Amino acid sequence: MTSTGPSDRTWLEYLLYIGLGVGIAVLALFAAKLVLGQTPAHYRHRDGWLLPDSILTPGKVAIRDTQTVCHTLTSTERHTRESLKEHIREEYGGPAHPKPGTEEVDHLVPLTLGGADDSLNLWMQPANPRPGFKDKDRLEVWLYAEVCHGRLPLDSAQRWIVHDFPGAYRAMVTAKARE
Fold it and tell me: In angstroms, what is the C-alpha Rg of the chain?
C-alpha cells in the first residue's frame, strides 16, 4: 500500500523544526535585549505637549462605574511600587532618582477617573517643557468635577485623556474662561 501524503514521522519532524526555530528566535531576541539594552520609549508631541509612548503606555482603566469613581477615595490606591516606578523610568530613559519636581511617574488615566495602577497606564511625565505634569494634574481635577457633576460621561473622560488630553486641556481653559 502506498502513501499519498507525508508520513506521521515527517509531520513530527516538521513540527520539531518549527518549535526549534521559534525557540532560537526567542532566545536571540532575549539575548539582543540583554546585550543592547532596551530602547527608551518614544515620546509623542502634540500642541506643545509631550505625550506618552502609545505602545508602552496605551492607558488602562480599572473602574468604569461613575458612582464608584465619584464616591471612592483613591488614597488607598496611590501606592505604586517603587520597583514599578523604576521600571517606568528606565523604559522612558529617565534618571533612576530624578530631582523632585522635575518629572513624575504619572498615570495616563488618573486614578481619580478610574485608571489602573499598572505599567500600561504609567509613564514618565516631565514638568518641563510646559505644559507638563502640573498642567495635566489640573486637567485631571477638572475632568473629575465634570464627571461627578454629571456634565461628562466617565467613559468619555477616560477616552479623552488617553487619546487627546491636549484637546481636553484646551476645553478646560475655554470653559474656565467663560466662568
Answer: 23
